[in-house]
From TrEMBL:
Originating organism: Nannocystis exedens
Name the record gives this protein: RNA-binding protein
Origin organism lineage: Bacteria, Pseudomonadati, Myxococcota, Polyangia, Nannocystales
Pfam families to which the protein is assigned, alphabetical: CRS1_YhbY (PF01985)
Keyword Repeat: no
UniProt GO molecular function: RNA binding
């Protein structure tokens, strides 16, 4: 019961299959993210349900996104990256300054938009 209450408070969405990235995969995703522009911006209100929803939609569309934390963001950047990753079922690839790079494998097949193929181990 305590675990369920703690998970509900933390905003856990029920996603269990968060990908685990090795060093090669993380480096590969960092190189792909270099040329990307931020898709989602987080303001002074912090990580709200609307931000989580927008991030989840962007991850479903793009798989790899940048999230910009605004100057008035009320918290630690690394903690915010981990919280947003946990709530969206993604992985925080990188945090540089106020920019967070998130990755989540696309759940549905779309032949027009191929999935990102991570390097083999």
């Amino acid at each position: 019961m305590r675990r369920a209450a703690r998970s509900a408070r933390a905003g856990y969405t029920g996603r269990v299959n968060r990908p685990v990235l090795g060093a090669r995969s993380r480096a590969f995703l960092k190189s792909l993210a270099h040329s990307l522009a931020p898709v989602v911006q987080v303001g002074a209100e912090g990580i709200s349900p609307e931000v989580v929803r927008a991030t989840s939609i962007a991850l479903e569309d793009h798989e790899l996104i940048k999230v910009k934390l605004g100057q008035n963001f009320p918290g630690e950047r690394v903690e915010a990256a981990e919280e947003l990753a946990a709530q969206t079922g993604s992985v925080a690839v990188q945090v540089i300054g106020r920019v967070v790079v998130l990755y989540r494998r696309r759940s549905r097949e779309d032949p027009k938009r191929p999935r990102i193929e991570l390097p083999r181990r």
